[in-house]
Amino acid sequence: xxxxRRPQLTRLVLCAFLASTxxxxxxxxxxxxxxxxxxxxxxxxxxxQHPIISMKDPTVVYHDGKWHVYATTGxxxxxxxxxxxxxxxxxxxxSAKPYYLDxxxxxxxxxxxxxxxxxxPQKKWYLIYQSPAPTYSTSDDLGxxxxxxxxxxxxRGTPSSVVEDWIDFWVICDDSxxxxxxxxxxxxxxxSRTKLENFPNGFDDPxxxxxxxxRFDLFEASCVYRLKGMNQYLCFIECLGQGGRRYFKAFTSAxxxxxxxxxxxxxxxxxxxxxxxxxKAEKGGALWTADISHGEMLRDSIDETMxxxxxxxxxxxxxxxxxxxxxxxxxxxxxxxxxxxVPVGAP
Length: 347
Known about the structure:
Layout: H1 11-23, E1 35-37, E2 52-63, E3 66-75, E4 80-87, E5 99-100, E6 112-119, E7 124-130, E8 134-139, E9 152-153, E10 167-173, E11 177-183, E12 188-195, E13 207-211, E14 220-227, E15 233-240, E16 246-253, E17 261-262, E18 279-281, E19 293-297, E20 307-308, E21 314-319, E22 335-341
C-alpha cells in the first residue's frame, strides 16, 4: 500500500536472522541501523490567521489511497496548535494544503503532539494529544478534521505518581489492554493501562518503567510499536546527545506490561537507533538537519495495535536547517522529512 520504493531487506532484519540462527529465537531485533533521509517534504504554510513558522511532531497513517498527516504547528507568537494535511504520494506532500485544527472551535487553544489511529472495537478514529494533560478526540472520518469531537482528558487532574511533568502521550493496545506511555523531560518514562473494553476510561495510576539520572539520556517523543512477525514490541525515545543534538535510543520487550531492554547497537549517541551518526542524505552531500527528532513510523496497519513491518522501516520526523541559531524552542523552524532504512549491501 506504500507509494514509495521499499527496500528489499534492511540491516536490522539480517541481524535478526543471524541472531535467531545463533540462539534459536525468531524474535530478535537488533542493530546496527542505517538510514537515508529526504530533504524537507512538509514545511509551514502560513496564512493571515496562522503565522506558522514550524511543522513538527507528526503522526501518519495510510488510508483510502492517501497519506493522512496530523502535526503540531508553532507560530511566531509562540502559540502551539495542530494541522492536518493529506496527499496521495510523498512527491505531493510539499503542495498539500493544511487544515488548521483551531478552525474546529472545540480544538482552539493549546493542543499539540498528536497521535492518530483507528480503534476497531468502537469503529472510531482517535486523536491523542497534549493539552497539556493527555487528551483525546474521536471522529468517524479521518479525512474530515472539522469533525473531531471536543477534547476529553484521560485523567481527572494530574495523578500523584507523576513526579515532575508529563508530555508526548502514546497509546497502543494488545489483546486485553490499552496502554498509555509518556515522558517527563526529566529522565523518566511512564506507563498506565486500562482494560480494552473500558478504553478510553479507567486508566490506572502511571508508573515509572525506565529512569535515567541524566535527563537528556531519556528525554521525550517516544513511540511504541508491535513488530510484525515477531514476538516483540519496539519502543524508541528521543534523547539529547553531543551539542544538544537530538537522536533516538531503542528498546524492546516481549510484552507491553513488562520491562524494556536496550537494543544492541541502538542505545547511544555514537550508535543510535536514528541520529546524525547513522543517517545520510538520500541524494548525497551534507544532511540537511543536525537533529533527528520527534516523528512516527509509517505503519503496516491503521489500528490500535500500532503494527510496523521491520522489513520496511520508514520514519517521518522533524528536523531543521543546520544554520539555525535560534535559542527559543518555540521559534525553532522545524520541517518534516522521511527516513528510509538502508538495504543490506548498499553503499
